[in-house]
Amino acid sequence: MSDVTQLIHEYLRHNKKFPHVFCAGCGHGIVLGSLIRSVHALGLPKDDVVVVAGIGCSGRLAVYVDFNTVHTTHGRALTFATGIKMANPRLKVICVMGDGDAMSIGGNHLIHAARRNIGVTALVLNNHIYGMTGGQCSSATPQGDISMTTPYGALEDSFDFVEMAKAAGANYVARGTSFHALMLDKLITSAIMHPGFSMVEVFSPCPTQYGRKNKFRSAVDMYKWLKKNTVKIETLKEGEKPEDGRIPIGVFRDRQTPGLEERYADMQRKLMGTGR
């Protein structure tokens, strides 16, 4: 049995219909593989992992993996994840969201999850559009780009998820792409094991709802664009932005501040007279 086949049998639910529902060329399947490889590399028991997801294409990841999973309401995945982590801090809680789930309808929850520095790993699959519900503009749609609700081009600036998470107080902040799969494995592995709130934004192409409207002739062109228009952050000086407009990828913050659940447990011990 090959390593890939072993992972499939060990980590995917076989009573679900495969192939998956993702469109041809969608990057979400690559992120699914990266998540599985990361958990496997860490040797985490499946019963110790919880995957929480909201609504949208990214939400299907929770359906396929053989972990403890919760499929929640749109924009509220982080609230469920916060409750799970506080109730059982021993669990590794991974919250999978799209850009709409995380920063449009759920933006307030992401800000406060980062502010609290709760020990949850947020995977934000950014395809720059509402992919499942018809291709509407999201808070990640770049200005000037076409969507079903911005047929003449988006007039608003898009959010920078990395800067938002850093400003709100997240411990670990990283950005990868579904083109850079091996790099993504490392980012997700580090995020899962990090104390406090960790966020990994993943640029994940949507050929169907985004690519076709924005002059990408094929999914391959979208992956070529990711290769050409990203740059690893370690090649830049601190605080430097690429003059050619390329998007930095890599780790933007890495600190070890205790998470909310750790601070809560410490306070509880002190109040019960068992702490220092």
UniProtKB/TrEMBL annotation:
Molecular functions (GO terms): oxidoreductase activity, acting on the aldehyde or oxo group of donors, iron-sulfur protein as acceptor; thiamine pyrophosphate binding
Stretches assigned to the Thiamine pyrophosphate enzyme TPP-binding domain: 63-202
Superkingdom of origin: Bacteria
Pfam families per UniProt: TPP_enzyme_C
Nucleotidyltransferase listed as a keyword: no
GO biological process: cellular respiration; small molecule metabolic process
CDD domains xref list: TPP_OGFOR
Keywords: Oxidoreductase, Pyruvate
UniProt keyword annotation of Oxidoreductase present: yes
Descriptive protein name: Pyruvate ferredoxin oxidoreductase, beta subunit, putative
Gene source species: Nitratidesulfovibrio vulgaris (strain ATCC 29579 / DSM 644 / CCUG 34227 / NCIMB 8303 / VKM B-1760 / Hildenborough)
